Amino acid sequence: MAILTCKGLSKRFGGTQALDQVDITIEPGRIVGLLGPNGSGKTTLIKLANGLLTPSQGEIRICGLAPGKESHACVSYLPERTAIPTWMSVTQLLDFYQDFYADFRRDAAEEMLAHLNIPPKQRIKQMSKGTREKVQLIMVMSRAAKLYLLDEPIGGVDPATRDYILSTIIGNYDPDAAVVISTHLIADVEKVLDDVVFINQGRVMLQASVDQIREEKDMSVDALFREVFKC
Fold it and tell me: So what's the pLDDT on residue 5?
């Protein structure tokens, strides 16, 4: 069964068409780059998949389910902005996730936090922006979810942190799950992607495997992206 399917999916905000007749299928075991310029509809699509928005038209299914209480149990979501409670200590955050999510793998989270030398008693508000982003990603990737939705996970961090985040994504998801990474930093994420979806002005321009792009176009995903979206 496909992890995520969209059929004729559209979303309007007043007079603005954020998504327009989107058809996408994402299979298990794939890391998919949702790629497009700013304002192309990437975040809208991710919020629809997470049940934070409702479609204006068409349908979206996660593991065969419409977005709602049951599908939420399958989805682990990293929003674009840091959303963990800053007053909590690391231990309190671990307790919170363990209480809230039945699929939270606390041992995996503790192992990654220890790797970063983050003290259990340190409060989130005492951390740098980059460290907060790493902690939030660790929490998201420590769930045994079926679909990981990561909105700009490497947007505001330094290159060394980007490498750590990408290795964390690769090493901490179930092979039967799928990962969707929304970003405009193509060159940085290309090495971890299996498939890409190019989206612009709410429309899907391309859905293909990375291998297919390299074989048929004889170019990198980053080079093709620059060609498709050149000003």
Answer: 97
